[in-house]
Amino acid sequence: MSIANLKRVALAILIGSIGGWVFYSLNMPLPWMMGSMIFVAAATIAGAPVALSLPLRTSMVAALGRSWAAPSRRTSSTNWCTGSAASA
């Protein structure tokens, strides 16, 4: 990855972080996901030089999927494992 592309990816991460923080501050649902998506999309439409890193995107999608599959704090991990095995 070139330095110029790395700067565009860093700008996208910065804008997304600001968007997540704004949505979090406003108590919006899914603030770190929706805030970052909306802010980066708006910046892209406005012409900001942002870029996407496919390896970073792939790892974040995997982390997001894992976090959605994680057991809730209100249920025991045993129940979650049993439910996951039963649905497979």
Features:
single chain, 88 residues, mainly alpha, 0% strand, flat
Question: What does this protein look like?
Answer:
The chain has 88 residues and is mostly helical. It has a domain at 1-56. The chain is 75% helix and 0% strand.
The chain-level structural class is mainly alpha
Order of helices and strands: HHHH
Biggest β-sheet, characterized?
none
Q: Overall 3D geometry?
A: flat
The level of helicity is: over 70%
Strand content: under 5%
The number of strands is 0
Radius of gyration: 17 Å
Helical stretch count?
4
Question: What oligomeric state is this?
Answer: single chain
What is the average of the pLDDT values?
82
Reconstruct the topology from this structure.
Elements: H1 3-25, H2 31-46, H3 54-69, H4 77-87
Task: Quickly describe the structure.
This protein is an all-alpha fold and 88 residues long.
